[in-house]
Design a protein that fits this description.
Layout: H1 2-7, E1 13-17, H2 22-27, H3 51-65, E2 70-74, H4 95-102, H5 115-140, E3 145-148, H6 164-168, E4 171-174, H7 179-188, E5 194-200, H8 214-219, E6 223-226, E7 230-231, E8 236-237, H9 242-255
Parallel strand pairs: 1-2, 2-3, 3-4, 4-5, 5-6
Antiparallel strand pairs: 7-8
Helix pairs in contact: 3-5, 4-5
């Protein structure tokens, strides 16, 4: 695919999942954020565990072979896809950074960690992971641009307010086309940052993606993302998305 994109002179967007890796989680369960298995069958890998170093090594190796134009980093989260609501718990890898961040020993019980400490810790751990990922990308392929999917459930969640990921990414990514979230991202984007909206394909909830909004967002200068759910045996888009795909096709013809 990369070689095809070179021949066609098309930019290439590739992907890494930051928060989860099924193989790593199975072989290194002690790298999982405590309590994260309550929110998913696979759990979420802790940014402060050795996982981040392994991920950055993978990124460097990949970009050494394929210096793509863009990388999308998915599930940039701490312990849950609902990061704001997740309660930090003590683990072997969290004791040292917790003391660095809060100035005190990490309590044994999650309920003994204050709401302020909980928020501060998650924000800082994700900031450290963001900086490590950004350094890994730019040191190997300075021209590669980066963006992160959280996803955002509502505008201005506390964990993301003025976060380095928002301020320093090359693009802001909404895994929805909801007006409240997209308008918020447009309001906080930095000079030169692009904003990408997902207009088709979210299957976990209703009303997250609306392909009919393409013209409004195109006029605002947004880029488009979507899922078509290729289905075996020929991996054509799932029939449920036939109508939505027709709208997207018409949109790209109109854009020209």
């Amino acid at each position: 695919l990369y070689e095809m994109s070179r021949d066609a002179k098309m930019p290439f967007v590739s992907y890494f999942c930051v928060g989860a890796d099924l193989t790593v989680a199975a072989h290194r369960p002690h790298w999982l954020v405590p309590g994260s298995l309550q929110n998913s069958h696979h759990g979420f890998l802790a940014p402060e565990s050795p996982w981040t170093d392994l991920l950055c090594e993978r990124i460097s190796e990949f970009l050494g072979m394929y210096p793509v134009e863009w990388l999308l980093f998915d599930w940039f989260v701490y312990g849950s896809l609902h990061v704001d609501d997740f309660r930090v718990r003590r683990a072997w890898f969290s004791e040292k950074p917790f003391r660095e961040i809060t100035g005190r020993t990490m309590p044994e019980k999650a309920e003994e960690i204050s709401a302020e400490e909980n928020l501060l810790y998650k924000r800082e751990m994700l900031a450290r992971q963001f900086r490590a990922i950004r350094k890994a990308v730019k040191s190997v392929s300075p021209g590669t641009k980066i963006m992160f999917n959280v996803p955002y459930w509502k505008p201005a969640e506390a964990v993301w307010k003025d976060h380095p990921m928002l301020l320093q990414s090359d693009a802001l990514f909404a895994e929805c086309s909801r007006e409240d979230v997209v308008e918020w991202l447009l309001s906080v984007r930095q000079p030169g940052q692009r904003v990408m909206t997902t207009i088709i394909g979210r299957v976990d909830s209703k009303g997250e993606c609306d392909p009919e909004t393409w013209r409004k967002w195109h006029e605002r200068g947004l880029d488009f993302f979507g899922y078509a759910w290729g289905t075996p045996p020929d991996f054509r888009p799932h029939p449920d998305y036939k109508r939505q795909l027709q709208i997207v096709r018409r949109a790209f013809r109109a854009i020209g």
